Hints:
Blueprint: H1 6-9, H2 12-19, E1 23-27, E2 32-34, E3 42-48, E4 51-56, E5 62-68, E6 73-74, E7 88-91, E8 95-101, H3 102-111, H4 113-142
Antiparallel strand pairs: 1-8, 2-7, 3-6, 3-8, 4-5, 4-7
Helix pairs in contact: 3-4
InterPro entries: cNMP-bd_dom, cNMP-bd_dom_sf, Env_Response_Regulators, RmlC-like_jellyroll
Protein name: Cyclic nucleotide-binding domain-containing protein
Pfam families: cNMP_binding
Amino acid sequence: MNTPTMLRALPADHRQRLMHFAREVSFPQGARLFDENARADRFWIIRTGSVELDTYVSGRHTAVIETLGPNELVGWSWLFAPHVWHLGATATTPVRAYEFDATTVRSMCQDDPALGQAVTQWAGEVLAHRLRSARTRLLDLYAPYSTGSAV
């Protein structure tokens, strides 16, 4: 199952309202967008390029959870208190993206309950997808193998 994109998840009027506040940004390959436990004050929708989501595994290396591409949401932690990143993110290629200020979008969502519900539903679906991906990836990396497949 693919991650829900803003285009598929939000009605046209809600997309247009959000895009009014979008800022075009770019990141070079290798740029760190954010680190785990840092303040989540913005989010992005990738236009071109790819971003890896990762997590630190104590006593091991950083584990890549998922690779995101065009039209995908980078970041959901900005929407849910305490507004700190639960993962890290690095541009694996040059990236062009739309950037959104989290405070502005949260305020818009509070002022317009229908927009808030649509954005929360979208982010919740992305979050559920990312949790499934993280579980699968971590099992692939660290599960004991007895018959050649993850338990």
